[in-house]
């Protein structure tokens, strides 16, 4: 991998990774999509059939396979850094791990109306804030750089990451 994007749901990982892919002519792997392709089920279906523990096991397996690629951009799922073994693998990868951070209010605005986020579907802004606070230290543990995405266009974030990668 050339760069790895992590962060809470709705922080912009997928959108920014696709912009970077276009700018840098690098393939992008969206880990959630790779999980769907691997399991031949949607994420809500995986949660319904196997629960969060089963989903996280599939996520770990697909992460390990994806990190073997030497070229490209990886956009992880919002929960990928929850497992200690995933954090370790992200830290060990030579690619910079960039944490995209959004406030709970911004996250709620971005994911409003989304039905493919089993963990967030029942949460309001306060619930999202509590979940983000619970995860924040795990994100920071494996991040090399943090970028605040509130009030910024995905293009400006992609441009900042491109600048980081060229230094």
From TrEMBL:
Q: Which domain of life is it from?
A: Bacteria
Q: Give the enzyme's main class according to its UniProt record, as a single word.
A: transferase
An example Pfam family from this entry, by short name, is SKI
TM regions (residue ranges): none
User: Where do the annotations place substrate binding?
Assistant: 32, 56, 78, 135
Which Gene Ontology terms describe the biological processes this protein takes part in?
amino acid biosynthetic process; aromatic amino acid family biosynthetic process; chorismate biosynthetic process
Q: Which E.C. number(s) belong to this protein?
A: 2.7.1.71
Question: Can you list the GO cellular component terms from the UniProt entry?
Answer: cytosol
So which cofactors does this thing need? Mg(2+)
Q: Which family does it belong to?
A: Belongs to the shikimate kinase family.
Classification via PANTHER family: SHIKIMATE KINASE (PTHR21087), SHIKIMATE KINASE 1, CHLOROPLASTIC (PTHR21087:SF16)
Task: Share what the entry says about its subunit structure, partners included.
Answer: Monomer.
State the name under which the record lists this protein. Shikimate kinase
Which organism does this record belong to? Limosilactobacillus frumenti DSM 13145
Which taxonomic lineage is given here? Bacteria, Bacillati, Bacillota, Bacilli, Lactobacillales
């Amino acid at each position: 991998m050339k760069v790895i994007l992590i962060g809470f749901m709705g922080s912009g990982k997928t959108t920014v990774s696709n912009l970077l892919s276009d700018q840098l002519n690098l393939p992008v792997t969206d880990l959630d999509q790779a999980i769907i392709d691997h399991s031949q089920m949607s994420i809500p279906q995986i949660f319904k059939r196997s629960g969060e523990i089963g989903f996280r096991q599939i996520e770990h397996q697909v992460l390990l396979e994806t990190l073997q690629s030497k070229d490209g951009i990886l956009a992880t799922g919002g929960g990928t850094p929850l497992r200690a073994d995933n954090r370790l693998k992200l830290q060990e990868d030579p690619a910079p791990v960039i944490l995209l951070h959004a406030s709970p209010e911004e996250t709620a605005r971005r994911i409003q109306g989304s039905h493919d986020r089993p963990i967030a579907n029942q949460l309001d802004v306060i619930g999202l804030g509590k979940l983000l606070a619970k995860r924040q230290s795990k994100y920071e543990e494996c991040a090399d750089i943090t970028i605040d995405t509130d009030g910024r266009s995905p293009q400006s974030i992609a441009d900042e990451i491109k600048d980081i990668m060229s230094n």
